[in-house]
Amino acid sequence: FKTPQQKVLYTSEIIDGGSDGPRFMVTAEDAPEEPLVAATPSAAWQYVLGLIREERMKNGITKSSISKIGR
Predict the structure, then answer these.
(1) How many CB atoms lie within 10 A of CB 26?
(2) Burial of residue 57 (number of CB atoms within 10 Å: 0-12, 13-18, 19+)
(3) Cβ atoms of 40 and 20 closer than 8 Å
(4) Whole-prediction pTM value?
C-alpha cells in the first residue's frame, strides 16, 4: 500500500487471538513491518483499501491514471 501505482503482493493470515478468538492479519510486501490486524477478514481488507485510497489521494493518482499504467 506504500506504492499504490505498483502491484504489491499481500499475505493474509489467521492468527491466534487468545480468548478473543482468531485475528486476521494482512501484510503488504512493501510494508512488512506494518501488518494490519482485525477481528474479521473483511475488516482487515477494508483497512488495506482505506490505506491505499489515502496513498492515492496523497500522490494524486486517479482511476484513469491507474488504468493507463497497465497498458
Answers:
(1) 19
(2) exposed
(3) no
(4) 0.74
